[in-house]
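Project standup — Tuesday

K.O.: blocked on the structure for the chain from last sprint. Re-posting the sequence here as requested.
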Amino acid sequence: MSLQVKGALILGLAMLAFSASSALVKVACAHVPVMQVVFVRGITGAIILFAMARHKRVPLGGKRKGLLLARGVCGTVAIMLYYNALMGIPVADTMLLNQSAPIFVLPLAAIFLKERITWRHGLFVLLALFGVAVVIRPSTDLVNVPGMLALTSAIFAACAYVLVRKLTATEHTLTIVFWFTVITVLVATPLMLLDFVVPDAGTLAVLAAVGLFGTAGQLLLTKAYSYGEAGRLAVVGSLGAVLGAGWDLVIWGHTPDIWTAAGGIVIITACASIQMLRHSTTSGVRN
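H.V.: unblocked you, prediction finished:
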């Protein structure tokens, strides 16, 4: 089996884990406040990553603490917005809008990473924005607030991605992700305590699964990109929204309407194209 195929299979598992975690977040938020779910996601990841770092003897202090802090804050805001969006719209819609992050990565990478943008990048950005408009369309003349939250989460996710790109030159992946989980816990704790609800046994199990699936997805994602080229794996990464639609159907009996499906296809196609173009362009610059 080639490394590229292995990377694609592992990324597919990562998307399955992320989609399952998202569906479970939606289930959990029907019983406990969203900040409790964010806290559990963070503390679970922090414990697992700390154990892995100790086992591999990876230092977690970090060399570029300012950037690690910024990445952690961006990632924490992104996950808070994402979880709040899940409370109001289907899992597939939330994942679709969150996966529009490449739209925002492009200008940020051009400014901070000095990556070159061509007219083709701009064309696919416009196409992706059109798809976003179709998915997030206002209903009965009202702003689609959950949809806007999901889209804003993509902006913060894009900021986190660019910061990760800068950090990987000096920091171990476990260090980067550990800082993110710890900052998530620190931010979520006081907000959680303001409206804490004691979960029953079933909800506690769901919360534990949210943390486990979310952390597993993060680790599998990292592993996948160590095997395959990021640009070529972009299409596989778009499976998350498709799997999310499956959870919507199985748990809530919801199927996406024709507009969401059409907008989703446009977003997935455009963002995957952006990722592949970015990879080919940056590869050319490095060589």
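K.O.: great, moving the ticket to review. The two ends are 27 Å apart (CA to CA). The chain has a mean pLDDT of 85.
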